[in-house]
Amino acid sequence: MAVKKLNESTYEVSAVREGEELKHLKEHVLVHFKDAKVDGFRPGHVPAKVIENKFKKEIEGEILNHIISDEYRKAVAENELRPIADIKLEKYELNDDKVEVVFTIPVLPSFELGQYKGVEVEKENVEITDEKVNEEIEKLRENAAKLKEVEENEEAKNDDVVNINFEGFMDGEAFDGGKAEGYDLTLGSHSFIDTFEDQIAGHKKGDEFDVNVTFPEEYHAENLKGKPALFKVKVNSIKRKEEAELNDDLAKELGFDSVEDMTNKTRENITKREEARAENDFKNKVVEAVVDAITFDVPEELVRREIDYQINRFAQQLQMQGMKLEQYFQMTGQTLETMRESAKENAERAVKTELVLAEIAKAEEIKTTDDEITKEIETLAAMYGIDKETLLSDVRKNGNYERFIDETNYRLVNQKTIDLLVNEAKVK
C-alpha cells in the first residue's frame, strides 16, 4: 500500500494484489459463491471456472470491496486521517495475476493554528443621538399603520398588498410551478418577473384578467427561456396602509404611558440594542481575524453540504410562506445552479470558521459539563414554551436524542471557544 497526500483535504491510496496473495483473495471470495445455482450442476458442485465465468462482475466487485476495505482501514489508522465522506475510486484494473486499485479519501485538513490569542480589532463606540431616537419613533409610527381593505371601486397601486390567484400558460398549456391561490403580493416589490406587478396595478377587487410577460433569456427552465407567457389572474382583495398619528393614544396602544415615556424607553431600547450589536460585531471581527490568519484548503465535500443546508433552510422558509422553491425560481428567474454558486463563498467561510474553532477548542481542551448541557436544554425548552422533560421526550420519540445532545454540546463548546477568543482580544 502507498498513501500519498494530494492536498490538505485529500489523500490517495494505491494498492496492488498479485501472486499468492491475489490467489488466496480470489479463493476467499469464491467461497461465497460455492452454493450458487447454475443450470446443469448440483448446488455445491459447480466447478470454480464455471463460477468465475458466470459471476465475473460480482466476483470482481467483491475483490474490489475487500481490497478497499483493508487498505482504507490501514490508511486511516496509520496516517491518523479524519475522513469526511465516501472514498472516490480513481483506478481499478484486474487480470488473472494482478489487481491495481487507486482511490482517494476526503479528509478534514490539518493546519497550524498560529497565534489566535490577543488579536487586535476595532470596536465601535456606541452613541445614541436624538436623531436616531426620532427615526426609531417614526418607524414605530409607520409600523403601527394598519392594512385596511380599500373601497370596492378603488384601484390597486404601488405599495398595496394585493391577494391574488394566478395560473401561468404557454401556448395555451399550463406549466409546472406557475399556479398559486391566495398569494399576497406587494406591488412595486419587484418579486415577480418582468412587468407582472405593473399589470396588476389599476385593477379592482374581483377583477379577473390576463397578464402577459416574457421570461428572462437566462431563465433556468429551458422550455421557458425568453418565451412569452400568459397568466390568468384574479384579485381577491386589496389592502392599503392607513397611517397612524403620533400622540399619547398611539403611545398607549403600543404599550407606553405617553409620547414622553415612549421617547425615553425607545432611547433605552436603542442603547441596549446598539450596544449588543456592537458587541456582536466585535465578536465577529475577532473570529474573522483569527480565521483569516490561517490558510488551508477547505474541503469541497463540506462546502457542498453547507450549501445544501442553506438551500434546504431557505426552501423551508419559503414553504412557511406558502411557496415552493420551484415557484420561487419561476417567479425570480433564478436557478438552483445560480443559487448554489451565489451561496458558495458564504458556505466556504462558514466551513472554514467551523473547522478553525473546532481545532482551537481541541487545543484549549474546551469541554462542557452535564450541568451546562442541562441548562441549555432548559433554555431551549422555555423558548418552545414547554418543559425540559417534554422536549427530551419529543426528541427521543423522533429517534434524535443522541444527535440532539451532540448538537447542544457542539453549540456550547463553540460559544465557549468564541468567548475565549473575545476575552483574549485587544481593542484597537
From TrEMBL:
A Pfam family matched in the record: Trigger_C
Documented EC number(s): 5.2.1.8
MF (Gene Ontology): peptidyl-prolyl cis-trans isomerase activity; protein folding chaperone; ribosome binding
Subcellular location: Cytoplasm
Cross-referenced PROSITE patterns: FKBP_PPIASE
Record keywords: Cell cycle, Cell division, Chaperone, Coiled coil, Cytoplasm, Isomerase, Rotamase
Annotated coiled-coil segments of the chain: 123-160
Domain PPIase FKBP-type: 159-227
Broad class of where this protein is predominantly found: cytoplasm
GO cellular component, one term: cytoplasm
Catalytic activity reported: [protein]-peptidylproline (omega=180) = [protein]-peptidylproline (omega=0)
Gene3D superfamilies assigned: 3.10.50.40, Trigger factor ribosome-binding domain (3.30.70.1050), Trigger factor, C-terminal domain (1.10.3120.10)
GO biological process terms on file: 'de novo' cotranslational protein folding; cell division; protein transport; protein unfolding
Role: Involved in protein export. Acts as a chaperone by maintaining the newly synthesized protein in an open conformation. Functions as a peptidyl-prolyl cis-trans isomerase.
Domain remark in the UniProt entry: Consists of 3 domains; the N-terminus binds the ribosome, the middle domain has PPIase activity, while the C-terminus has intrinsic chaperone activity on its own.
Family: Belongs to the FKBP-type PPIase family. Tig subfamily.
Annotated protein name in UniProt: Trigger factor
Organism the protein comes from: Leptotrichia alba
